[in-house]
C-alpha cells in the first residue's frame, strides 16, 4: 500500500478512494443544500479553518482537501500540518479558501474523513506508546468500515502501527471456522497434507498462518508446517508457554481481548506481533471543527 503524501502534488488516490469521496459527497449533498443556497450568495467568498479541539495524531489532510476540490475545483486548500503530526487543542491544521457555498456544502464530509482517520491514528499511537521499548509490532485487522479499508489502514501506519492483510488474497490465515468446516471431511491440523495443499494452491510467496487456542493446537500447527501462529484469546500463561517453546522457530502473533490495559503484559510474553481489531472498528473520532472566518 502506498501513502497519500504526494496527493496535493498531483499523484492520484487509488481509484477506490476517489470513488469513496464522490459517493460520500453524493450521499450528503443530495440534490442540493437549500439552507446554504438561500443564505449565501453565489459570489460570497471566504476562508474556513480546520481547528483541533482535543490532542491526537492528525491523519486525512489530503482526503480533507480532495473532498473540497472534488466538490469545487476552484477552492484552494492549504494543509498546515501533515499527516502523522501530533496536534493539540486550538491548533489550525488546514485552511480552505473560495466560495463559501462550496465550503459549507463540503464541510461535513471533509470533517468526517479527517476526524475518523485521525481517531484511528490516535488510538493506534496509544497502543504503540503502551509497548514502547519492547520488540513487538502493533497490527490492525480486517475489521474495518466497508469501503474505508485502504484509508483506515493508512491511518494505522501513520499512528505508528503496521498492517495485517489488506484483503483475503494477501495471505493465508486458517481460522477456527476453516478448521470446523474441514473437520467435517476428516481433515485436521495433524494432517500435514493440509499445509502442503495450501502451498501448492497459493504460490510460494504467501505465508501460511494458523489460528490456535491452546498449546496442543500450536504444536499441531507447527508440526504441520505452518509459517506463523495466531494465538487467539489465549490466557497469558498459555501464551508464555507457546513463546517459550517456539520463539525464534515460527512467527507468533497474539490477538483477541487486547486492550490498552493489558497490551503491555501481552507484549512482555515475547510474541512478535499483536493484532487489535479495536484500532479500526471502534476508535473515538478526533474532535476537529471547521470555522468560517470573516473576510
Description:
The N terminus is likely disordered. It is elongated, with a radius of gyration of 23 Å. It has a 6-stranded parallel sheet. α10 links the parallel β10 and β11. It has 295 residues and is α/β, with parallel strands linked by helices. 41% of the residues lie in helices and 18% in strands. It folds into 2 domains: 133 residues, Quinolinate phosphoribosyl transferase, N-terminal domain (Aldehyde Oxidoreductase, domain 3), CATH 3.90.1170; 150 residues, Alpha-Beta Barrel (TIM Barrel).
Structural class: alpha/beta
Indicate the overall shape.
elongated
Q: At the third CATH level, what is the topology name of the largest domain?
A: TIM Barrel
Strand fraction band?
15-25%
User: What is the number of domains?
Assistant: 2
List the helices and strands and how they pair.
Elements lengths: L14 H15 L4 H6 L5 E8 L3 E2 L3 H11 L4 E4 L6 E2 L4 E8 H31 L6 E3 L9 H10 L13 E3 L1 H8 L8 H11 L5 E5 L2 H10 L3 E5 L3 H11 L4 E5 L7 H5 L5 E3 L2 H4 L6 E6 L2
Parallel strand pairs: 6-11, 7-8, 8-9, 9-10, 10-11
Antiparallel strand pairs: 1-5, 1-12, 2-4, 3-5
Amino acid at each position: 500500500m502506498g501513502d497519500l503524501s504526494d496527493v496535493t502534488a498531483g499523484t492520484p488516490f487509488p481509484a477506490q478512494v476517489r470513488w469513496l469521496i464522490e459517493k460520500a459527497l453524493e450521499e450528503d449533498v443530495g440534490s442540493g443544500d437549500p439552507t446554504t443556497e438561500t443564505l449565501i450568495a453565489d459570489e460570497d467568498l471566504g476562508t474556513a479553518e480546520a481547528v483541533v479541539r482535543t490532542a491526537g495524531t492528525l491523519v486525512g489532510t489530503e482526503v480533507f482537501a480532495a473532498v473540497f476540490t472534488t466538490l469545487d475545483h476552484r477552492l484552494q486548500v492549504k494543509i498546515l500540518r501533515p499527516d502523522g503530526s501530533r496536534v493539540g487543542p486550538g491548533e489550525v491544521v488546514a485552511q480552505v479558501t473560495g466560495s463559501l457555498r462550496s465550503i459549507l456544502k463540503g464541510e461535513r464530509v471533509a470533517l468526517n474523513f479527517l476526524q475518523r482517520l485521525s481517531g484511528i491514528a490516535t488510538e493506534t499511537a496509544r497502543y504503540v506508546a503502551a509497548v514502547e521499548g519492547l520488540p513487538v509490532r502493533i497490527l490492525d485487522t480486517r475489521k474495518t468500515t466497508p469501503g474505508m479499508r485502504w484509508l483506515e489502514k493508512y491511518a494505522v501506519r501513520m499512528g505508528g502501527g503496521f498492517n495485517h492483510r489488506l484483503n483475503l488474497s494477501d495471505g493465508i490465515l486458517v481460522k477456527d471456522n476453516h478448521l470446523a468446516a474441514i473437520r467435517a471431511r476428516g481433515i485436521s491440523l495433524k494432517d500435514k497434507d493440509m499445509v502442503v495443499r495450501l502451498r501448492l494452491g497459493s504460490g510460494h510467496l504467501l505465508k501460511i498462518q494458523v489460528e490456535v487456542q491452546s498449546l496442543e493446537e500450536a504444536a499441531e500447527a507447527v508440526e504441520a508446517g505452518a509459517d506463523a501462529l495466531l494465538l487467539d484469546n489465549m490466557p497469558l500463561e498459555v501464551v508464555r508457554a507457546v513463546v517459550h517453546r517456539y520463539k525464534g522457530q515460527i512467527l507468533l502473533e497474539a490477538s483477541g481481548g487486547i486492550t490498552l490495559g493489558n497490551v503491555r503484559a501481552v507484549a512482555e510474553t515475547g510474541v512478535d506481533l499483536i493484532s487489535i481489531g479495536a484500532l479500526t472498528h471502534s476508535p473515538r473520532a478526533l474532535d476537529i471543527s471547521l470555522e468560517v472566518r470573516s473576510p
